[in-house]
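User: Could you walk me through two proteins back to back? I'd like the raw sequence and the structure tokens for each, with a short line separating them so I can tell where one ends and the next begins.

Assistant: Of course. Protein one, sequence then structure:
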Amino acid sequence: MNRHIYWLVLFLTLTGSILEAQVDTAYTAVGMPNVSITHQLYYLEDPSAQLQYTTVQQPEWQSKFVQHKGQYSASFGLTHSDYWFRIVVKNGVAATEKYLEFGYPFLNQLDVYFTDSTGKMQHFLVGDHFPYHQRQTENKNFIFDLYLHPQEVKTIYAHITSDGEVTSFPVRIVDHATLTDDAADEQLVLGFYYGIVVFALFLSFFLGASLKENVNFRYFLYVVSVGIFQFSIDGLSFKYLWPNNVWLANHIIPMAGAAAIFFLIKFTQFLLLTKEHTPLICKTLNVVAGLIVVLFVFAMLPNPFYALSLRALNIMVLVSNLLILIAAIRVYRMDYRPARYFLLAFLLLIVGSTIALLKNIDLLPRTFITEYGIQLGSGIEIIFLAFALSEKVRTLKDEKQAAQESLLRQLEENNRLEHELNVELEKKVIERTLELQQQKELVEEQKSLIEEKHKEITDSINYAERIQKSFMASRQLLAKELASYFLIFQPKDVVSGDFYWAAKLPNGEFVFVIADSTGHGVPGAIMSILNISALEKSIETESNAGKILNATRSTIIERLKKDGSEEGGKDGMDAALFILNPSRTKITYACANNCLWVVRNGVLIELECDNMPVGKHDRDHQSFTTFEFEVQEGDLIYAFTDGLPDQFGGPKGKKYKYAQLKQLLIHAAEWPLQEQEEKILQAFSEWKGSLEQVDDVTLAGIRI
């Protein structure tokens, strides 16, 4: 009995060893077209990314490899870790040529180590970080020739590096016929899918161009983004579009994915009229779209931004899909026709994406449906979105037709009312024509009377101008007494409150006055004649500058008392008066509010002035001061009123002011007097621009 127990124990031990070997080793033979090595796959996580091929072969590291326990392919989710894989393959009794296929085309870096048919160690380095032509077989997946001798046992090591993307490791051993059949299936599905994409692009582009509807162009941009995204997911962009651009190969998927989500949101908002139907969801989608734009930029940057964009984009996809689904259901319940197709299309996309996701995370096997679920769902979604788009166009067309019919009815009603009004108006026109004719005759009569009165007033003002000028200093007197001078005199109206006056005193001296009477226009002109008369009377008895202004003030106050008031009005003038001695070596002057300026060798000297007018004032009991100033040859004396400094203009419509006038006169003093006059008038005109002149302008320059 002990002998039987011994053989039983030996049998069980050998059986266990055989079963363990069967689990650890993948078997292949000539008649086996496809060998799944899901349960024969061992992996080792390398978070530090420091392990080398020579290291993981060591016996102490072999025990650290963990057998893959999943039902389908190995999947590690979003990870930054490196992974090492070990596969042991044993051949049958006959030599066979197979292919080792890694069915995940998005690996950044894949190192594969195994012996070739001669026993020589081979090392292949491929992935998105390397140009496409480095692959042994030009396929979207990573495929390597695997020749096996009879009864040969071959150990294969693979090492993958990730930048934080979803990492999956589907691996199998297949023959050439299986690869050919898979390629045929793929061509069928992808041909169907990209045919739909191209058709949708042409349809949306031409609809958008012909109908001028923004929704068509948003659909166009969405289809373009989805097409680029799916073309990259299928590994075809790297193969056909940018085989040498490894940066774009690594970054295009999150970039195109972000663009697809963004344009899907914008297309949804426009198609479903979310701003009107679901305003809160619309605002939330705007926030999500803004975040997606930020993630699009992050996807173009290196880590940690690239990895952050991958994680955040997955969250944004879930959030945006949930919001869009809720919005579509709500709008569908409002009986909005385009929402029917949109909701169906979106549900199909979610189903296809979910199937692909479950396959990627090892919850579903790699079958035809799971491999191409996202293409099938996306393709059918694009078709139904096109139906939704056409329904939207039909809705817009119906709305336009209804609006046109309503407008036509309104026009017909307007025409009827217009006809009735025309009949009524014709009656009233006949009645009003006679009234208008009578009113026209009355208006013409009044117009003629106004024109006649206007002419009389204009003639009177023009005549008043001649009278006023006859009171002012003659140009002959100024030319005789002042060898070199210029005089600017520009009234605001035809006649002026400003005036210039001069006279020869009995003692041979010459007196010159620039004054600004109270008011402007006709009242100012009358006041100026009164002021000039008072000046003429004062020089009959006075030859001192201050006393001349004192006597003038007394005369003005006395005459204005006759207006009926006890003290008389407070009208008068501001004036600058100076007297030149015959030798022209000095001036005596008196100023009432208006000062004299002298420019000597580029320096402006502001002469003293009494701050009170020539007229009724709180200080009219004080005498005007007589000042003296020694002049030199070449000195320029400037006398002026406040019209130019008070003029509004310039870019901001502000006053010219005295400081700016000082700078102008300092520069002008270098020019000949005639040129000074032209330059000052030009500066005044440019400053005033299109604004109205606010006051009379008078300025005189006299060179000693």
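----
Protein two, same layout:
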Amino acid sequence: MYLFFKDNINNRDNRNAIRVFGVLFLLSLLSLISACAKQGYPSGGPRDTEPPKSVGCKPENAMRHFDRHQFFVEFDEYVVLKDADNNVLVSPPLKHKAEYSTRGHGILVKIKDTLQENTTYLFQFKEAIADFNEGNVLPSFEYVFSTGSSMDTMMLAGRVLDARTGKPWKETLAVLAYREERCTTDTVAASEQPDFVTRCDKEGWFAFHYIPDGRYRLVAVEDKDRNLRVGNSEAVAFDNAVFAATDSIDSTAMAALRVSAPDRSQQRVLKSEFADPGRITIVTLLPMQAPQIGGEEVQWRLNQRRDTMTVWCLNEQCDSTVLLLADPATALNDTLKLRFKPRRRIRGMPPPEKKPLMSALCRNNSAYYDDLRLAFLNPIAQMRQGAMAEVMSMKDSVVHSYPLLLDSSGLMARVDAQLTSDEQYRMFLRDSLFTDLYGHYSDSLGFTLTPKDYGILTMHIDNATGNPLVVEVLDSKDTVVQRQTLTGAGGTLRFIHLPAAEYRLRAVVDADADGKWTAGDYRRQRQPEKCIPFDKTLKLREKWEMEERWRVENEE
């Protein structure tokens, strides 16, 4: 009995201990799960934004008596190469491209050329290296060595800007340096590779490092084909002056180059199609001068820029034709085979509304400058005698009648009215006032408008350039909104109908007197025409006439 009782007590104690241990284990497990649910995954700390750093090179950077066929650059983390063939510049250029690959934390470069004796080579990794994990780009890394006993240490620097805008060029530019003694022709960069090469940064600055003492000619080129030569269609900047290499960057000796894309456009038809049966649209690359059309009896009109022609077949339902388009002044001679292609209708959608013969260019809250103009879909053959527009002032409900004046093109009419700015009007035109070439009459037309006033900019210009000027007014997006020509040594130009806004001015020194800016041409050794900016931004308001004086001089 005693033994049995003792065994029962021991068994009961063991069972209690097991229960306590189980409860404690369950509580610990729940606590751990709760902590994990609250904390989630570890954040890993802040995102790495630092580019990789070089921690050594084999052979060492800036080595003399270099006689290897490869070198290795080690970094503090894993790295990747981004388009090394295009983003690594070697100066002097190699005949055969080097081979680039990654090895662990580094980059291995294999040289496949026979290196020149006593020459300093510079490998420029321009945004070609990034870390593996975050893609942080190393802006620039340079590896330099000399095959001789000394290292070249001279340099050249400068800046390349857009000749038209004065801003950095929108694409990457390679800058080529040629020793003066190699420049036996002025167009050496069109046929031969340079002695040294570098690249502009995003602000247009460039610098040659580790070049020998001497005098050089510089050419900047877009180099789309990566052959380090000036191509026929590539943007280029050049200067026939020679620049001496220096041992430090001197702002007074920096080269200033103006880049422009050559104008090698040949006149051609960009688009020709039926807009509707009987009506054809033709768009050309360049403005047409004196176009001629054969093959069909038609009427045609050019837009203001003269690069878009609208053609009306005398057969209104014409849906296929062959037109012979010629413009001898621009060497255009083309045969256009055209067929109307109806627009595919979506099931359930109503058919498109027929376009009205007459519409207004001055409706709603924006007048067409100070003129109230009407536009026509087709040329107008006849206007009713004594045709008038009825205009009611919403202020006092008084109605006045104003005559309609048809433009010589037959595509525009003007309401000869004098209205007050910022006052609302209701305009009404009766039906059948106009008849088009097909015999269709215009429908009635009614709309409201609130004429807006505009500013006037008057410029008194003293032209000291010795050439005609083309003075351009630019808006905030650098779009030319108006331009005028000044042929003499001075005069006054008035730019009217300018909406309230901020404007800048630019004067083109029109050396060839063709009334427009002319790009440079490397093969003809013609520099782009100079563009001289006015030194103020002008804030014009409605109903203002602003006057400014400007002495335009050739900049050195």
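The mean pLDDT is 88.

Let me know if you want the two compared in more detail.
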